[in-house]
Write a structure and sequence with these properties.
This protein has helices at residues 3-28, 36-40, 42-63, 70-83, 87-111, 115-135, 141-159, 167-182, 190-206, 209-212, 217-242, 246-274, 285-299, 303-326. With 329 residues, the protein is mainly alpha-helical.
Length: 329
Amino acid sequence: MAPRWRLPLLFLGFLSLVLALDGGLARLTPGLAAPGAAIAWHGALMVSSFLGTVIALERAAALDRLWGYAAPLLAGAGGLLVVSGNASAGFALLVAAAAVFVACSIALMRKQPSLETGTLLAGALAWLAGNVVLYRLGQPVGWWIAFFVLTICAERLELSRYMKRSAFSRRAFVALAAAAALSPLEPSLRLLGAALVLFAAWLARYDLARVTVRQSGLPRFVAACLLAGYFWLAVAGAIFVARGPWDAALHAVFLGFVFSMIFGHAPVILPAVLAVRFPYHAALYVPLALLHASVAVRVAGATLAGAWGNAAAIALFIVTGVALVRRRP
């Protein structure tokens, strides 16, 4: 598929992002208007419709098969159905999106069998499991967290493959990936929390970011995003283990960890997916700093102030990114 045809798919995902942010803020802010479904299904819109669309679009572009683009299309369309009031049909499309995404991951693993592609497949299966649980109106959060952790860690393992690693480090990665993939079966999520803490420690020790953070420009920015994200992954895991505040743990993962990864990888992924320039500029540090400051405020207990800061950081990053993409060389 030509890059220009991928943009409408990305736009579908961004509609879900806007609706999810509106719904999340309306939950906490008296008098703020938002569609009732966006308030009720804020998490599903953010995780499966927006982030699912973005990650599935990247995977489809990597596979380079037309049928693979059904995954981001179904994920984006599912979010719109949910907001329109037909949640059951929307959740069914999210299940279908994850099923196509699993098929993409299987095709990639058959094309290039490795620990990395196997872990990506495990992450895809976790997303499918989470969406099936959502369709049955269960609690999918553990599966969704496993999806993001396995996907991101697999990609970091692949990008850091030229670093020297001991056999122990690879065995530890396999054990942690297995724990993350299976731990959502334990309802309290304490096992998942322990896996998150250990994965954060593994990433801090073995990821390429600890080298590139000493460079300059884009490599340092990406490394700063990654290392800050690993910190919040560990914090979220510790909160789950201690059975601490649910809101703090969820947003430490989905905002502190996942969105920090998005901020860091957007200047690399968007040019590959959309064939556009995304030049580095130091201004990118402003939304990044706001993101992590607002996550810290939210985890500390100031939920409303943190939520508005989270939304402002995401909006500012999008505005900054668009401005940089549209700049002339």
